Amino acid sequence: MADLSDELKRLRAELDEAQEYLRISELRSRLPQLETEMGRPDLWDDTNRARVVQTEFTSVKDDLDLYDRLNGQLEDAEVLWQLAKEEGDEASQSEVGQVIDGLSRELVALELRALFTGEYDEGDAVCEVHSGAGGTDSQDWAEMLLSMYRKWAVGRDFQFELTDSQDGQEAGITAASFVIRGRYAYGFLQAERGVHRLVRISPFDSQARRHTAFASFSVVPYIEDATDQVEIDEKDLRVDVFRSSGAGGQHVNTTDSAVRITHLPTGTVVSCQNERSQHQNKDRCMQMLAMKLVALERQKREDMLAGEAGESKKVEWGSQIRSYVLQPYQQVKDERSGFTSGNPEGVLGGQIEPFMEGWLRWRRAGSPIN
CATH classification of 5-115, choosing from 3.40.605.10, 3.90.1150.10, 1.20.58.410, 2.60.40.1120? Predict the structure, then answer.
């Protein structure tokens, strides 16, 4: 009968490590406080505060439940293994082996939590896609990227909210902004920040030649109190209104309800067209502008995120973080971590998490892109 003692000891060590990076002791102390907050009758008098409390309560409870479940399974396996050794019970040994395999997979997935160390990694993400060099192909490519991130979000049961989209001249889009809501959305999506390159036979070339197109992805954390963290002078803003170009309510294509705001000192641009009125779109723009300005201040202050939003590099040859090759061979390769996939169709269908994990592990190994 094979000895499973070392495997069980390994799992115990990994679970003890998880107890540290999940901060289980802190969470056990925090949970009763959150339960008290959740039980207050006036909690929802302040909607923003209520959302923050509810989100933290759910996260804390989920982590404690997960740790307790894994710990319980491991304790049961340790006891069963002792009995199996004493009685020479091969059936019990097989059962312990199955538990070990299952726990090993779960702990590998859980280890990702240790890679999220940033202040906002656990929160939502405000994202943008822009077409670059490549003409119509780049605009089509930008729309393909938008679809890829939407499918990734849906596959993770995250919420995807398109806030603005600008149609291309012949096909695709020139730009789009969207919010992805879900635990660790920002932590994951940092891996996507930069220029993405596509090589394929162009559907817009009558001679069916191979073309290269570029599009960029940028992301900042969704910060609930961003408007309180930064002061925006109305004199520094240029506000443009225009007719909405896509789905978004009864006023679309009938009134100039869409809003674009340019912050003149920094050149930061935000736009929104999915709300039902110009006033609502402007409020949303101001909120997103505040988030971007907070992120810019953090970049300057820490001197470590300069250029990371993907807007400081030209969206063209030599600047890509990832290449998606459909012709003459099939491959997607991350130029930073070296992670490669031979299934471009799956990647474009939203299967991008292995690239995100590869980047996170590569960054932790000491080769951060910033």
Answer: 1.20.58.410
